[in-house]
Amino acid sequence: PLSSRLSGAPGNVLSFSETRAQQLVNHRAERFLCFNQRQLSRIYPSAYRIDSSNFNPQFYWNVGCQLVALNYQTEGRMMQLNRAKFMVNGGCGYVLKPPPMCKGTDTHRHTHTH
């Protein structure tokens, strides 16, 4: 069940296919974000991508997923987006999450209403 899947032990990396991860983003985004504040998650391309195309990694970065795997053999906009994201930190291989995505942060405090 989803509840046990989203309550992994510290130090574990849980892997989700893009299909399953997209369901979580669409239907349980806040819970997925809270999970990603405590755990590492890896999103990998669907087995149906026989052409090695890439999904949009931004959806998963937006809910705090740390490891978003793309098909590096396939150039295109999604690989450009991936390269651009990691260029902002000098190309060192990681980018720190914004404070609202970190454990212990009150996410409601950072929400603005206009």
UniProtKB/TrEMBL annotation:
It catalyses: a 1,2-diacyl-sn-glycero-3-phospho-(1D-myo-inositol-4,5-bisphosphate) + H2O = 1D-myo-inositol 1,4,5-trisphosphate + a 1,2-diacyl-sn-glycerol + H(+). GO terms for biological process: lipid catabolic process; phosphatidylinositol metabolic process; phosphatidylinositol-mediated signaling; release of sequestered calcium ion into cytosol. This is Phosphoinositide phospholipase C. Keywords: Hydrolase, Lipid degradation, Lipid metabolism. InterPro entries: PI-PLC_fam, PLC-like_Pdiesterase_TIM-brl, PLipase_C_Pinositol-sp_Y. GO terms for cellular component: cytoplasm. Its EC number is 3.1.4.11. SUPFAM superfamilies: PLC-like phosphodiesterases. Residues 12-101 form the PI-PLC Y-box domain. GO terms for molecular function: phosphatidylinositol-4,5-bisphosphate phospholipase C activity. It is an enzyme of class 3 (hydrolase).
